[in-house]
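[agent] plan:
  1. take the single chain provided in the ticket
  2. run structure prediction with default settings
  3. attach C-alpha cells to the ticket
  4. add a short note for the reviewer (M.T.)
[agent] executing step 1
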Amino acid sequence: MAQQKDDFSLKFGYWFAVHRDQLRTWWAMSILVVDVLLLAVFAVMFTSYSFSTVRTVRGISEMSVPLVPAQLQSALAPKVLMTDDATVLDRGSGRYDFVAPVTNPNPLWAAVQVTYHFTYGNQKSRDEKTTLWPGASAYLTQMNVAMTAPAIGTTPRVEIVDVRWTHPNDLSMFTGGVQFPMTKVTIAPVTGLAAGVVGTRVAATVTNQSVYTFKSVRFGIIVKSGGTIVAVGDVLIEGFKALEARTLEASWLQALPPNADVTIFPILNLLDAGSFQ
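[agent] step 2 finished; step 3 output follows
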C-alpha cells in the first residue's frame, strides 16, 4: 500500500511539473473570467440603481403635487360670512348706532376674530372686532358713533375688513357644551333715567349652562318692532360662574313698543384661553 502511494505522488509530481505553465494559464484565465463576471454584475446593478433613483426622484416630485385638488381645497375652505342690510339709529347730537345681521355659514369653522366697520355716506366708523361661533347667526354692532348727518336717503353699509378662521378640533363647546339660555325676558317703560324722560328697560335672567367659569361674557341686545330694528345695546357680565344665573339689564332714553321682540346673544371667544377663569 505504501508503495502505491509513493508511485502516485511521483506521477502527480511529474504531471504537475509538465503542466505547470498550462495550469498557470488556466488560473489566469479563470481570474480574468471571474473579473469579467463581477464587472458585468456591477454594471447591471449600477444600471438598475440609476433607473431606480430616477423613478424615486420622479415619485418624490409627483408627491410634491397637492394630494387634494384645488377644487376640493376650495370646497373645504371656510365660506365668507353672510351679512344683511345695515340699519342706522339716530341717537341725536350727531351720534349714531349701527347694526347688521351676520351669519357664519360654516358649521366646522369658527370666526375667532371678525374685524369690521360701517360706512355712512362718505364717512367710515372705527374698526370693531367680534367673534362668531361655527354656524351661528348674530349681529355686527357699533354704538354711539360720532358722524356728520349725511344726505337724506343715504343708507349705511357694513364692511368686513378681515376674518381670522380656526377649525376647532373639538366642537362640543359650540354644540351644547356651552349655552346661555334666557328666561324672564321683559321690556317695560322706566322713569328716572333723565329728567322728564320715559325710557325703556329690557331685563332677562341668563344662565351659564356649562361647567366653565368665564372672566366676562358680553351679551348683545337687539330690539325689533314689526321686524324693524329700533334699539341696540350690550351688557357685560363679569365673573360668570358655571351653572350660575344672573340678571342682565339694558336701558334706552326712548320709549320702545312694549310688545317688541328682544334678541339677546353671547359674544364670547371660546377658543381663547383668556376667556376662562
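[agent] step 4 note for reviewer: Residues 70 and 76 are 10 Å apart (CA to CA).
[agent] ticket updated
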